[in-house]
Structure formats: C-alpha cells, structure tokens
Amino acid sequence: MKTDLTDTTASKINKALVQGRRAIGTPAVGMVLTLVVVTDEENAYDALKAANDASREHPSRTLVVIKRVSRSPRGRTTSRLDAEVRLGADAGSGETVILRLYGEVSDHAQSVVLPLLLPDAPVVVWWSVDAPRDPAGDPLGALGQRRVTDSFAAEKPINELRARGESYEPGDTDLAWARITPWRSMLAAALDQVSCEIVSAEVAGEESNPSVELLAMWLADRLHVHVRRAVSAGPGLTQVRMETTGGPITLHRSDGAMATLALPGQPDRAVALKRRETSELLAEELRRLDPDDTYASALRFGVDRLGGIQSAAEREAERAEAASQPTPSLPVRSVPDPAPAVRDSAPALPAAAPSGQGDADRPTPAHMPPVRKAEPQ
Asked: Residue 316: is its pLDDT beyond 70?
C-alpha cells in the first residue's frame, strides 16, 4: 500500500501511517528499531532495496531522507516536504516513509525525522553516500545509537578512512568493516590450527578498496607485527599471506566466491568466501547496537602505519628473487684488446690450405734455392 503526500507535515505523515495500518488489517506495531537512510535521488532505489531486504531480519520503520535541490533560484527559497508512505508488501517487513526535502527545510532534516521515530526503540542512521566527516556531530547522526557509513562509496576511500579514524565516536561503524567479517573469521580459525609465531603479514586487494586497509590494520593491531599492503587486480580482497616460524599461511581468493586456505603441513582446502550484497552487510550491522571496540582499535591504528603498497607483479618478483638466493660467482678479469697499431704491424699469416691439398703445394728440396754459407772473417 502506497500513500503520496505533497507539501505535508510530520503530523500528517503519522496520521497516514495509522490509517494505512488499519486499512491493511495490521494495527499492531512490531518494529524493533528505526532505520534512517540518508541518500540522494540517484542512489535512493538501491539504498531502499537494501533497507527493505535487511528489514526481513530486523522489522523496522525505515525513514529515507532525500535532500532535493531545486533548479530555479525561486524554487530554492521555497521550503516543502513531500512524503511517500509504504506499508505491507511494498515495505518489506516493516514501514517505509520516503521524505523529500526542498529548500531551507533540507538544512533541518533532524526536525522532520524526530517526530517520526518509534518511541522507546533504538535508532540507526545510515549514509549510503556523501557521509559527513564527523557522523556523531551531524544533526541526524546525533539521533542514532549507531551510525553506519560506507567508505567504499566515497570519491577517495582511503582519505575517507583516515577521516573516520580522526572523528571516531562509540557507535560509529562502516560497511567496509562488515565486508571483511568472513575474512577475519577464517583467519582466526586458521591460526587456531597451527602452533607457531607470526613474523609478518601481507594483504593484497584493489587499490581503492578500504576493506583491504581495514583488514591490514586489524592484523597489525592484533598480531603486533609488520603488515604490508599490496595491490592486485581484484575483485575486492584477493589474498592474505602470513609468514610464520612454521611456514606461510595463505588465504587466496581470485574469483570473489571461493577461496583456498593453505596451512603449513596440511593439504590446501577450498572455503566459501563470497562477496556479499549491501543488504547482508546492513543486516549484520543491525544485529548489534553496542559500540564495536574491535573496529575502533583497528581504525585508530592508522592507515599510514602500514607497509608500502606493492603491485602483484612486484610482489611475485620479490618472492622469486628471495627464493632463488643465487650464490656469488668469482670475478672474471677481462683481457684487454691489443692496440690497433700492434695488430697492423704483425706479419700476416698465410691462409690455411684446404684439407688434402697441403702436401701437393709444398715445394720439394730440389726446387728450393741453395743455402749460402757464411764466409769466415
């Protein structure tokens, strides 16, 4: 069921929600939280689809905030609020209200959202794009117990990750962190199967993927070893290699679905490591509403403390060179070329005769001139 409201107010939206629930025969409210989605018109469809899919696991009231910019100068001075109320099958397992803010009201979105929040229910704010530099200091972010951003959607993801570390407050999280949850679980399980000491580690992935930096910072923060960040063609994260006293531990994924885990002294095994959809990542973040101390510790470790970025080709060349370990050879002294003048003054040697003709051309003693003896003095 959909209800469109033009130039409306928060009280009219609440009234439309009550009437809609009565019309479809579900007057009881069973939502567990309020999810505020801040997006733009271009990304509204994908963000709303992800929120609806996540609501099947977490029934919630979803408030989608879209700040519209009028094309004409006159329209920019006019404040207006349009709303679309969705209930039943059109809203997943909860309620959905799409809010479009025009003019000056777009600068006060928190005043529009506040009357629509569920009473006595936690609030989660998710910026699908264009997250503020300080989510906790944002007026909308101040309404939520949890604030979800996505560094991967930023223009410069690595710089966005640095900003997250500088402005972190308890309750902040990022979908780039949720993307590496299966990797962290697999690596932790792999280390439980071996008894050795970690010497160093290397994490490889796409150059502009902040999840690679987050996984490298998590390893460096937890293992207290040097971690190097390498570049590969992707997709996403491709490999984690940990050098240990018992041999290397490698988790490699080349196709974005299946990975190969290699442990010292054990046969390689295939493990499922599929790249997940945004709805799955969002549902994971909604499972816990308390501050994530592990994420905070990894984020505060700092991107700049990681090892230098290497390409995959440079990484393989360096390993091949280290594995070969060539033995040093003795120096060879070069013989100088004789001077041209010496070569020119030397008598020319007669050309060698062809095989079988040397004896026929050689002169006999009868043809040789007599030898003159030296006269006594």
From this structure: no
Structure token pair of residue 119: 């009473």
What Å distances lie between residue 163 and 40, 308, 370, CA to CA? 22, 20, 108
Spatial contact of 242 and 215, defined as CB atoms under 8 Å apart:
no
Strand partners, 174: 149
- The C-alpha atoms of residue 140 and residue 138 are separated, in whole angstroms, by 5
Q: Token pair 């590496």 is at which residue?
A: 180
d(CA 236, CA 199): 25
β-sheet bridge partners, residue 227:
201
What beta strand segments (E) does the chain contain?
2-5, 33-39, 60-67, 80-86, 95-102, 123-127, 146-149, 172-174, 198-205, 226-231, 237-244, 249-253, 258-262, 269-272, 307-311
Listed in sequence order, the residues at least 6 apart from 272 whose beta carbon sits closer than 8 Å to its beta carbon are 257, 258, 259
pLDDT at 335 over 50: no
DSSP for 353-365 reads PPTT-HHHHSPPG
User: Measuring CA to CA, which residue among 268, 246, 237 is closest to residue 198?
Assistant: 246
Going by pLDDT thresholds of 50, 70 and 90, the confidence category of residue 68 is: confident
Residue carrying the six token digits 């025969």: 25
What is the per-residue pLDDT across 120-139, written as a single tens digit (0 to 9) for each?
A: 899 999 999 999 999 999 99
Structure confidence at residue 326 (pLDDT): 56
What does the DSSP assignment read for 61-117? EEEEEEE---SSHHHHT--EEEEEEE-GGGGTTSEEEEEEEEGGGGGGHHHHHGGGS
CA-to-CA dists, residue 270 to 258, 260, 263, 377, angstroms: 7, 5, 12, 106
Using pLDDT thresholds of 50, 70 and 90, give the confidence band for residue 304.
confident
At 313, list the tokens: 């080709």
